[in-house]
Amino acid sequence: MSNAVIQLIVLAAIAIFLVLRLKNVLGTRDGFEKPIVVDRPGPADRRGLEVIEGGPDRDIIDHVPEGSEAAAALTQMKRVEPDFNVANFLQGARAAYEMILMAFETDDLDKVKPFLAPEVLAAFDQALSARRAQGLEVHAEFLGLRELTLGDVRFDTASKEAELTVKFGAELISSAKDAAGNVVEGDPRAPRKQRDVWTFARTMGSADPNWQLVGTGG
Predict the structure, then answer these.
(1) What are the chain's domains?
(2) Which member of 117, 129, 155, 202 lies 3.0 to 4.6 Å from 211 by CB, making a disulfide possible if both were Cys?
(3) Any idea what DSSP says for residue 210?
């Protein structure tokens, strides 16, 4: 065997050895590799730390004064139903307000009946019946909500019944025309401001997640 062939065999053996060593040190890359994820505590983790450290519940004191009766009632509600979240409730109240208000304005209460207490539904029906008796046609357009504030909070620890009062400030266009087409109420072109104080109720810990409108005011 010639010297040239022997040198080639030796070089090939060294190359194979180096490849194997690199593979052991670096490892292999086979197909798609998931990116490295840095584990950071999320909001739930931070809330857990606040509870452990005895800090205030920001979900409560962001909406009512710390140490108030409302704050105490919300705390009791969360003990009964740990998944309850004040911010989420207010977002639901915002959606419910627009939906119920426009259902009343357009005389279409069927779709919101599950969210109305019997006495509220009866009052709305009475007002709409009076409107129909006058032959009025209403045009309404919801422009937006300018105010959303949590007011009184009540919680009955025995019945687990919760009542939350929310103050709304909205802008809408609303007008009523008689049978002859004359505008007898409102302005079909000018927005108006409307303020309402609504009270929602629910039994905490129940399987039904829906809140009902149990009281209205201005």
Answers:
(1) 82-217 (3.10.450.240)
(2) 202
(3) -
